[in-house]
Design brief:
alpha/beta, Rossmann fold, Alpha-Beta Plaits, four-stranded antiparallel beta sheet, binds ribulose-5-phosphate
Length: 231
């Protein structure tokens, strides 16, 4: 099974397992969340009444194309469920997110969700966060080089994310530094507390104690829940 098929199968399994008629649903961002949004569109076409909140302009556009009703987060009290991807998942279901550039809205939407369900293929599983993917940190453009030095003092090499020769700009109008830790992230909770107090940092890509469950697809096409519950 190729990578796209593994993303599709886990995304569809998550939607079919967790999304019920009448729910408020958070829509993730990225190439795995893409398949979840498509599946949600199919449920809407079958008559499900779903109210959705998107974590990016890109996901909002896709959802609308699929006939899904998208509202602003402040139009709902809470979200029953959000289905989103991740860049790394450790054995305790702690996450790195943000390679798709939507970490700020993703974290706000996750905080408003009763259940944050993460969908990945097994290539995203790591023993230690920061060993495969860099940690994305969203920063204000103002004085961002100074923010970079402060990030560097946390033991990483921050690289400004670029697109078409210019800094990549998030939906919130900010920049992203992708921070590589040579030995991985020893203590994600401590690191998050250090990063969050740096002036100029808007949000970091550590999603700690956020996932209600993680669904993982294997190359043989099977899917399992990291919580150990049956699908
Ligand atoms: C976007 C994200 C994505 O969820 C993450 O990058 C995973 O994306 P993909 O499913 O394309 O690998 O955090 O900000």
């Amino acid at each position: 099974m190729d990578a796209a098929e593994m993303k599709k199968i886990v995304a569809e399994k998550a939607v079919d397992t967790f999304v019920k008629d009448g729910m408020n649903v958070g829509l993730g961002t990225g190439s795995t969340a893409y398949f979840a949004i498509k599946r949600i569109g199919e449920l809407v076409a079958q008559g499900y009444d779903l109210t959705c909140v998107a974590t990016s302009v890109q996901s909002e556009g896709l959802a609308r194309e699929c006939g899904v009703k998208v509202v602003d987060l402040d139009e709902v009290d809470k979200l029953d469920i959000t289905i989103d991807g991740a860049d790394e998942v450790d054995p305790d279901m702690q996450l790195v997110k943000g390679l798709g550039g939507a970490l700020l809205r993703e974290k706000i939407v996750a905080a408003a969700s009763v259940r944050e369900v993460i969908i990945v293929d097994e290539s995203k599983l790591v023993e230690k966060l920061g060993t495969k993917a860099p940690l994305p940190v969203e920063v204000l453009p103002f004085g961002h080089e100074h923010t970079r030095y402060a990030l560097q003092r946390q033991g990483c090499t921050p690289e400004l994310r670029m697109r078409d020769g210019k800094p990549f700009v998030t939906d919130g109008g900010n920049y992203i530094y992708d921070c590589r830790f040579p030995e991985g992230i020893a203590n994600p909770f401590f690191l998050e507390s250090r990063i969050d107090v740096i002036p100029g940092v808007v949000e970091n890509g550590l999603f700690l104690n956020t996932a209600f469950d993680v669904l993982v697809s294997r190359t043989d096409g099977t899917v399992y829940r990291m919580s150990g519950q049956d699908i």
